[in-house]
Design brief:
mainly alpha; Arc Repressor Mutant, subunit A; Four Helix Bundle (Hemerythrin (Met), subunit A); two-stranded antiparallel ribbon; about 5% strand
Length: about 240
């Protein structure tokens, strides 16, 4: 047998093997950018600033605990999404939409989602359907808890997954462009208390999921277009109140 001795782990060895402080996990620039972008997008979408309002950069930097650089980078992305307008040397403001814009944009989105639903039923895998089904149940749980913030997040993810399942890059690009412009209006549509649009939207999502399960493309196409048309009406009523 070898005479080699196993030495106990001592403090000095622990210091040698421990990762240097400089290499320990820290938030990367990319993760900070994504976090600021998501928070700023939600802040605007959820109605904290009115149409045409200037973006209070200094206040938001304090609220988010960041410098102006990541905030301004996030504003550039939101401008590309159609959510804000950048003003040369004067910051940014929330993009204001006219009443006639609502109908046009929602109808375009309805057409895109209708096409996405039909294509998804032709090419969607069972794994993709299972993912959408899981998101639907998650969304319904948020609805029961009246958590509109999380409900809207999972709701939008469902619509995006249907577009992804369509497997059409041109459609995906067009969808992203229009989706950014009406994101605030889609959120506002759930606030229409006169017709309880939120409950109505949940029922429509049940029908969407059922048509997806059966791969009923033509039926799903009609459901999605009507879903967006109903959102358009509710959004217009909510904004006009």
């Amino acid at each position: 047998m070898s005479d080699t001795k196993i030495l106990p782990l001592n403090d000095s060895l622990a210091e040698i093997t421990a990762p240097p402080a400089a290499t320990r996990a820290e938030p990367s620039k990319a993760s900070l950018h994504d976090e600021v972008l998501a928070r700023l997008r939600d802040y605007i979408v959820e109605g904290n600033l009115s149409d045409g309002a200037r973006i209070p950069e200094r206040e938001l930097c304090t609220q988010f605990g960041v410098s102006r650089t990541p905030l301004r980078e996030a504003l550039k992305v939101l401008a590309s999404e159609g959510l804000v307008d950048l003003l040369p040397n004067r910051g940014a403001r929330v993009r204001a939409l006219r009443a006639e814009d609502y109908k046009e944009l929602f109808d375009v989105m309805g057409g895109l989602e209708a096409l996405a639903g039909r294509l998804a039923c032709e090419s969607m895998s069972q794994a993709q359907y299972a993912e959408i089904e899981a998101l639907h149940h998650e969304m319904y749980g948020f609805y029961l808890r009246r958590d509109l913030h999380e409900y809207f997040r999972s709701n939008q993810e469902i619509h995006q997954k249907i577009v992804d399942a369509a497997g059409n890059r041109a459609l995906t690009g067009m969808y992203a462009t229009v989706a950014g412009q009406i994101r605030r209006l889609r959120y506002a549509a759930n606030l229409d208390a006169k017709r309880d649009r939120w409950a109505e939207a949940v029922r429509e999502h049940e029908a969407i999921l059922d048509a997806l399960r059966r791969r009923a493309g033509a039926e799903l196409s009609d459901i999605l277009f009507k879903h967006l048309r109903n959102k358009q009406i509710a959004a217009r009523e909510s904004v006009s109140e």
